[in-house]
Amino acid sequence: MSKTDTIDGNVTYKSNHEFDLIREFDIDSLESINEAELQQVMETFDTEKNLNPEYNLIEETPLYIRHQFLRKVFFILVLQILTTFGFTALAYFIPQINDLFSQCPYISIGCGAVYCIMIIVCIIFPKTLENTICCIIFLATTTGLLSLLVASTCCFFDIKEIAIALAITVLVFISLMILSYQTKYDLTRWLGFTIVLSLVMVYFAIVLIFVPIKPLCLVFTIASTIATCIYVLVDMQLIMGGKRKYQFTVDQYMLATTTIYCDFISLFLNILRFFRF
């Protein structure tokens, strides 16, 4: 704050921002500015937007910036989901593609393995995703891999089972989104725990490849579903921002979208697997 300055005894300026705004006007017009006009100018000035273009979604962030970020995230998310299930529909209803996926179950295993490796690399080298081009490549690759994974997996299920699993997934996903928004507890403090949990689930999945015992597979499916629900809660708070320990910045919308998209697909596949028990 600067010291109080008075111009013609009419207007008082108490902050550096106000003083800087007035200096932009022609000196001859200063006498004609009244307090109401100055207040109108100050209301159109967004300190964060004009002075710091990159900042977290903190509680003081203007609502239009928050809404802009959320619109980008959910718009891209919808496109990813439509792409995935559009490709899945083609693979399911075109006999040649369906036969290919049915006869080559290792396609889904390969896609899942590559996806897990990508996630582990991103956890070890998080700064890789700070580059916009790397983010776009990561988003496109993830969407392609998970689309192949979902399509090849769905070829082993009935259309009714797929529809029920998708409906349950959407219902649970929306419920978790609402819960993460309504709760006052900062779930982003669990971020370190979720990373460890992810590594444990990866090791568990590797064990099941060599020891495919049905009861053990059921335990893994239940544990994986619960873990995914935790991921959704944490990731949604990272996206929503507010007074939380960790959160995505407004320029990380592609990373935020990919994160929540992976949660959605993981939840769908876990629910779909229950039809095999």
Automatic annotation (TrEMBL):
Its main location: membrane. The keyword Transcription does not apply. The chain crosses the membrane at residues 73-94, 106-125, 132-150, 162-179, 191-213, 219-241, 253-275. It comes from the Eukaryota. One of its GO terms (cellular component) is membrane. It is a multi-pass membrane protein. The keyword Cytoplasm does not apply. It is found in: Membrane. Keywords: Membrane, Transmembrane, Transmembrane helix. Belongs to the BI1 family. This is Transmembrane protein, conserved.
